[in-house]
Amino acid sequence: MRIATWNVNSVNARLPTVLAWLEAAAPDVVCFQEIKTVDEKFPREAFESLGYNVETHGQKTYNGVAILSKHPLSDVRRGLPGGETSGLNGEPDDQARYIEALVEAPVPVRVGGLYLPNGNPVGTEKFPYKLAWFERLRAHAATLLAWEEPFVLCGDYNVIPEPEDARHPENWLGDALFQPESRAAFRAMKTLGLAEAGELGGQAPGTYTFWDYQAGAWQKNNGIRIDFHLLSPQAADRFVAVETHRDARDMDKPSDHVPVVVELDLAA
Question: What is the pTM of this model?
Answer without folding.
Answer: 0.97
